[in-house]
C-alpha cells in the first residue's frame, strides 16, 4: 500500500492520540493535500518545523499500529464480514418465506453496522 | 462498574501503550492482585513510586479510552453479536434442510470469531 494512503488510514484510527497541532498539520497535509509551504503559511510555522512534525507523526502512527493493530484487525474483520454476507445471500436464495427473508435482511444490516 | 475491574479491562485494550515498567507494575497490582508493599519489594522500587505509577497509569488508561473508545465499542459490538446470534437461532428453528442448518452454524462461528 502506498505510504501516503496508509498514513491517511492510520490517521482515521489514531489521530485522537495526537496533539491538536499535530492533528491539524497532518490533516492539512494528508487529507487536504496542501504543500509544506502552504501549511507553513497557514499555521505560521517554519517549513522545517512542519516537515519535522509530519515525520514525527508518521512514526507515532506506525508505532500505535504496531502496538494496537486496529487497522490490521479492521482488514480481517472486513473480510470476515464479506464472508458472512455471502453466506447470508446463499440462505436468501434458498428460501421464499417472508419472515425468513426479513430476518436475513435484518441480520445483514446488523452485520454491516457492526464489526 | 467497579473501578478495579474497569482498569483491569482497560489494560486488555491499552497496555501495549504503556512502558514495560508501567505494564509490569499494573499487571502485578490488577491481575496478580499483589499489594503495594509486595510490588515494591519485587521491583526494588519505593512504595510511594509504585503508588504514583499506578495512579498515573489509571489516568493514562482512562485518557486512551476517552480518545479511542475501544472498550465502549466492544460492549456495543458484543450486544450486537448477541442480537445476530438470536436471529440466526430463530432461522435455525425455521428450517430442517441440512445445507441451511450447516450454513447457519458456519455463520455463527464466523460471528463469534469476529466482531
UniProtKB/TrEMBL annotation, chains A, B:
**Where on the tree of life does the source sit, at the highest rank?**
Bacteria
Q: What stretch or stretches form a coiled coil here? A: 54-81
Which keywords does UniProt give here?
Coiled coil, DNA-binding
Question: Is Ion transport found in the keyword set?
Answer: no
Listed Pfam families: UPF0122
Task: Name the InterPro entries on file.
Answer: RNA_pol_sigma_r3/r4-like, UPF0122, UPF0122_fam_protein, WH-like_DNA-bd_sf
Q: Which GO terms describe its molecular function?
A: DNA binding
**Its biological function?**
Might take part in the signal recognition particle (SRP) pathway. This is inferred from the conservation of its genetic proximity to ftsY/ffh. May be a regulatory protein.
Q: Which family does it belong to?
A: Belongs to the UPF0122 family.
> What is the protein's given name?
UPF0122 protein CLHOM_11400
Species of origin: Clostridium homopropionicum DSM 5847
